[in-house]
């Protein structure tokens, strides 16, 4: 039996003492978190946990090598790319990934839409990051991502990766969980929690007897990775009804650039299970390449082949495969001390939805919650919130895809024309939103009904452009050491308390801490029951001067407060911890919030009256009264599963 703990008496201790010592460690765990599966989701979860000072053991049945598969790629949105970057893989994202400069939608030979992507973090007029709807994603081979995560984890003292270890059994008790493995080193492992990141055929899910209902083979794509030159370097293409294809009828083909002149091409296959022969795939490749070259030449008035008909540009075929998209959602994502994440919990992928992106969001969401539970002791509300938030978000995504598909495939076009005005536009939106990262199919999720919301009617709550539970804008912020960074770079460790203070860009950094509202804010943040960092920003979309934003470790807004309000801040921290603080101190969120009076102090430094006198009206405004103290945030009602189709 492996008992991996930091300083339990007589343990076979493998980990150094954890440096972060929270004040209320009486009930904290000592055994590591067991992560089953060293795919991208398991590795990123393990890394995120070690960054929080939580020891992890990663069990994987393979020998720890990642096959090179250029056709198995991943599209990371700005939030998940930032998460992976913070885990130490930013260099890999830059070297192995590419950012698309635009997305083109073409029907036959007609360009329907060209959406230019904003480079990540590019400021708009307000100084906020570029609009999320058009922020460019990163596209990279999955093996490059997995290798980078594995290398980063190898440098972590708090992590042990046990390869050749196939999970075969799980036992849970009050104190922890025991995992039994098979393989050359088959043994038992003792952990505080266990997370099944073991892919679509998840052993953890099966051992926990959790159902995985949904639909099989919702869509199938023939996939190829090839090196060639296409007429729109750096731009991704969705081509509907391309003119002619030797390999069989093609309703849709996409071409998405990768680094090094490589492209991933996906041809939507007709429903059914027929095999795609190598000859048929080569015919598709040649037809698509020749068609695009000819179309581009025709646009420029040249037939592209010197009058010799259609020409296939030179290409080097690197990899092929068939990507079958299933839609499935595990009924339960938490059972006691065991959780599911990534493909073990959900399968999706139709219409540009990205399964791996969602898996990384699972990892980011669960890491800080397990970190809090490990250091401070578990709150049931906190641990349950993982399922409420993440399962709810993926369910909504699947629901959106499930309702769009019948309209788009199998004669759905006819239905569009007969039923709906503006059908062409709606159809194009449904086909591209997932790829573009917008709307219900593609935008980063908002946890509007999270159980971790503070009670309604918190005094001083104020509206900004981000709704509570939504992902915050990646604004430029100044940290207490004077460094100027993007907000997303500071996520992952604790709460972020962001003061909106216009005009501070010109202030001498040496006087930050003592100026204006800062001493009061520093005191309030120092008294919070969890780790928190103060940041200052010149502007935030929709925020007036002296607004204080409270941001969760995964970048979702808890709420915005007008001015410095110690009671409001501690109510937010309490809610984010699942109410643990209130229970420990005998105070409730509402009781502390109700004691709140107007919070903003006056001054001439950061957060005080700005030099130009602008934006000072919010100061001292109490705004709102103690409202509905019941305020319990609803979660997905039991049995509200999205998938209404066949079960597994
Ligand atoms: C051809 C192809 C193209 C794809 N394209 C895209 C795309 O464009 N975008 C996208 O988002 N996704 C895409 N996917 C899907 C994507 O690869 C998955 O969503 C992703 O791999 C999920 O990561 P994961 O870490 O959850 O699981 P996995 O990557 O499946 O990792 C699971 C790990 O668990 C281990 N394991 C399994 N069982 C056990 C056990 N009993 N004990 C110990 N270890 C175990 C496995 O060895 C593996 O290392 C594609 C997939 C394919 C095949």
TrEMBL record:
Keyword Oxidoreductase: yes
Annotated stretches, region: Disordered: 581-648
Low complexity bias: start-end ranges: 611-620
Official protein name in the record: Monooxygenase
Residue ranges constituting the FAD-binding domain according to the UniProt record: 32-398
Names of the cofactor(s): FAD
Family matches, as PANTHER family: BINDING MONOOXYGENASE, PUTATIVE (JCVI)-RELATED, TRK SYSTEM POTASSIUM UPTAKE PROTEIN
């Amino acid at each position: 039996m492996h008992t991996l703990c930091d300083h339990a008496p007589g343990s076979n201790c493998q980990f150094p003492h954890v440096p972060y010592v929270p004040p209320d460690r009486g009930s904290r765990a000592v055994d590591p978190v067991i992560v089953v599966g060293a795919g991208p989701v398991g590795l990123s979860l393990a890394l995120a946990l070690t960054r929080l000072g939580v020891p992890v053991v990663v069990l994987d049945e393979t020998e720890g090598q990642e096959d090179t598969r250029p056709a198995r790629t991943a599209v990371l949105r700005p939030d998940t790319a930032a998460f992976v970057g913070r885990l130490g893989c930013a260099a890999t994202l830059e070297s192995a990934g590419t950012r698309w400069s635009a997305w083109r939608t073409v029907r036959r030979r007609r360009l329907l839409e060209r959406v230019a992507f904003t480079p990540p973090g590019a400021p708009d007029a307000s100084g906020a990051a570029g609009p999320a709807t058009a922020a460019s994603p990163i596209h990279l081979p999955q093996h490059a991502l997995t290798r980078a995560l594995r290398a980063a984890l190898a440098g972590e003292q708090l992590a042990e990766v046990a390869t050749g270890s196939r999970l075969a059994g799980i036992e849970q008790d009050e104190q922890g969980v025991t995992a039994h493995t098979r393989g050359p080193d088959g043994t038992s492992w003792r952990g505080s929690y266990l997370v099944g990141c073991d892919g679509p055929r998840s052993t953890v899910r099966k051992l926990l007897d959790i159902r995985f209902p949904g639909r099989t083979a919702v869509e199938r794509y023939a996939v190829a990775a090839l090196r060639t030159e296409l007429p729109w370097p750096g731009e991704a293409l969705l081509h509907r009804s391309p003119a002619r294809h030797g390999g069989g009828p093609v309703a849709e083909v996409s071409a998405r650039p990768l680094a090094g002149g490589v492209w991933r091409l996906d041809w939507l296959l007709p429903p059914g299970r027929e095999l795609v022969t190598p000859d048929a795939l080569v015919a598709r490749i040649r037809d698509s390449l020749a068609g695009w070259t000819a179309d581009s030449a025709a646009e420029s008035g040249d037939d592209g082949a010197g009058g010799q008909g259609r020409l296939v540009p030179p290409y080097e075929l690197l990899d092929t495969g068939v990507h079958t998209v299933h839609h499935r959602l595990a009924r339960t994502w938490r059972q006691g001390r065991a959780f599911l994440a990534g493909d073990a919990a959900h399968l999706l992928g139709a219409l540009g939805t990205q399964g791996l992106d969602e898996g990384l969001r699972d990892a980011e969401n669960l890491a800080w919650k397990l970190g809090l539970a490990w250091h401070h002791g578990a709150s049931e509300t906190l641990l349950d919130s993982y399922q409420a938030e993440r399962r709810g978000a993926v369910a909504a995504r699947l629901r959106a895809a499930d309702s769009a598909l019948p309209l788009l495939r199998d004669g759905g076009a006819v239905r569009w024309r007969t039923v709906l005005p503006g059908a062409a536009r709606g159809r194009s939106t449904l086909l591209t939103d997932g790829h573009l990262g917008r709307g219900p199919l593609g935008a980063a999720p908002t946890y509007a009904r999270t159980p971790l919301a503070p009670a309604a009617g918190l005094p001083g709550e104020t509206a900004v452009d981000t709704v509570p539970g939504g992902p915050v804008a990646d604004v430029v912020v100044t940290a207490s050491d004077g460094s100027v960074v993007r907000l997303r770079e500071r996520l992952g460790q604790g709460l972020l308390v962001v003061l909106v203070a216009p005009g501070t860009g010109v202030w001498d950094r040496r006087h930050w801490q003592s100026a204006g509202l800062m001493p009061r804010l520093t005191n309030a943040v120092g008294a919070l029951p969890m780790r928190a960092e103060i940041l200052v920003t010149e502007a935030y979309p929709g925020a007036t001067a002296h607004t204080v934003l409270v941001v969760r470790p995964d970048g979702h807004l808890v709420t915005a407060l007008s001015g410095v309000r110690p009671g409001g801040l501690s109510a937010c921290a309490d809610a984010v911890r699942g109410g643990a603080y209130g229970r420990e101190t005998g105070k409730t969120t509402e009781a502390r919030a109700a004691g709140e009076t107007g919070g903003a102090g006056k001054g001439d430094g950061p957060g005080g009256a700005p030099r130009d006198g602008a934006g000072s009206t919010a100061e001292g405004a109490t705004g709102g009264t103690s409202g509905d103290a019941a305020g319990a945030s609803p979660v997905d009602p039991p049995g509200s599963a999205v998938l209404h189709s066949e079960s597994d």
